[in-house]
TrEMBL record:
It comes from the Eukaryota. This is Protein RER1. The chain crosses the membrane at residues 39-56, 62-81, 117-136. The keyword GTP-binding does not apply. Pfam families: Rer1 (PF03248). The keyword DNA-binding does not apply. Involved in the retrieval of endoplasmic reticulum membrane proteins from the early Golgi compartment. One of its GO terms (cellular component) is endoplasmic reticulum. Belongs to the RER1 family. It is a multi-pass membrane protein. Keywords: Membrane, Transmembrane, Transmembrane helix. GO terms for biological process: protein retention in ER lumen; retrograde vesicle-mediated transport, Golgi to endoplasmic reticulum. It is found in: Membrane.
Length: 195
């Protein structure tokens, strides 16, 4: 008697749940494998963005979707360029940015790590691309006005971000390990190897 009411629905849902769990594990597996391949991930994203731009150009619409996408990408960029702990708002005992030349060097820790930035960036383009297939999102607007609004917003936001970077003396980009010349021998400076 107990198995009649509840087991039928759960038995039918079990293959669907197993299939969904398998797909999510497979998706996470490939996402994890792509983590160290930064250049290839970004190349794929640029290709996806180019396809989206061509789609918008071809249909000559969905400018409000582009504006929303631009605002979201600007928000992601600000998170990518900002430190994890803003020295202006909350002083912390953990790693902080040096504020004086005599302070000890502390590494720059982003508020939005590169992988999450890339993932959100790519996901936003995928969602915007799918939205271009539904006419409900094709709101008629005068696109030059939206473009001007976005440019003004971008300039004001980046100016504020650059002022913050200058004030607290941090560079959010990892240029790489600094190398030093060391001692040079006469043979190495003349172009021949001294082994």
């Amino acid at each position: 008697m107990e198995g009649i009411g509840g087991d039928g629905a759960s038995a039918a849902a079990t293959p669907v749940n197993q299939w969904w769990q398998y797909l999510s594990m497979l998706y996470q597996f490939y996402l994890d494998k792509s983590t160290p391949h930064t250049v290839y991930r970004w190349i794929g994203t640029v290709v996806l963005a180019a396809i989206y731009v061509l789609r918008v150009y071809y249909v000559q619409g969905f400018f409000i979707v582009c504006y929303g996408l631009g605002i979201y990408l600007l928000n992601l960029l600000i998170g990518f360029l900002s430190p994890l702990v803003d020295p202006e708002l909350e002083p912390s005992d953990g790693p902080m940015l040096p504020t004086k030349g005599s302070d000890e060097f502390k590494p720059f820790i982003r508020r939005l790590p590169e992988f999450k930035f890339w993932y959100s960036f790519t996901k936003a383009f995928c969602i915007a691309f799918v939205m271009t297939f539904f006419s409900i999102f094709d709101v008629p607007v005068f696109w030059p006005t939206l473009l001007c609004y976005w440019i003004v917003l971008f300039v004001l936001t980046m100016r504020r971000q650059l002022a913050h970077m200058i004030k607290y003396r941090y560079v959010p980009f990892n240029i790489g390990k600094q190398t030093y010349g060391g001692k040079r021998t006469f043979a190495s400076s003349s172009g021949t190897r001294a082994d």
